[in-house]
Amino acid sequence: MNAKKKTRPFNILLADDGSEHARAAIELLGELPLPDQSRVTALRIFTPIQSSYVAMMEAGLEKTKSLLEEKGFEAEAELLLGYPGEKIIEYASTNHPDLIVVGAKGLRATLGILLGGVAQQVIEYACCPVLVVRAPTRPLRQILCVTDGSEHSQYTLEYLSKFPLPAPATIKVLHVLPPLIPSMLIEPYMLGTEYIYPVRTPEEEQQELEAQEREGKALLAHDLKILSKQGIEATGVLKRGDAATEIIEYARTNGTDLIVAGSRGLNPIKSWLVGSVSRKLVHYSNCSVLIFKAPQAE
Question: Which residues contact 49 (CB under 8 A, 6 or more apart)?
């Protein structure tokens, strides 16, 4: 892959809670070929009932700041009163970072339960890409970019060339065809005085499957061409089934280190939910996930 870098420094917002996943995020950021003078702001939020722990949190933030500086970043640290998801989004809206980085699990996550409330809230409402990092840190060698032909997928492909991925990384673009739904009625049968016939014949069903495969291959070819024009060489992968299940399973069995996907997120005024696929990727994949969103109109 011929990686391209942003010419200007990156402005990164790191949601820090002192967890192993927040530490893993620092390690992953240190691996990215970010432009010189890129800045990371470590933001930690404490709620009113945590006021007695402020001194301990300040000490933790200073440690995070030191770790970032050791990685070569210009670092800042801020401790704010409020509720994590809300404050992270508010801070990002005011300071316009290029990237928000959050851990997949927080200090209160036990028995493998994800800290979905904060991470998902940030993904749904954030104004910029969000990187959800899972510990332990893994070198970013295998990147899986998910595409479904939507405007958000196309935006993701276009933006990917601006994201500083390590040069040795191999990129695969995955498209999942809809699950095979066989005709429920194989033979006609009588219901009262009427015969019920199959929705489609086996021949029609096969034609439909072949048409879907042609469309899927055409989409992959189109997306690979977009990446190639941006100097990124990738290969296409076509699967069929439940989208989230297929993506997660492919990532798990092929050693994927980072899943890249698009999401339409939530508009502050409108109440529809973030796409279920990106939600499941963040919650159930065994690697880090980078979510892009196309800019929304005011």
Answer: none
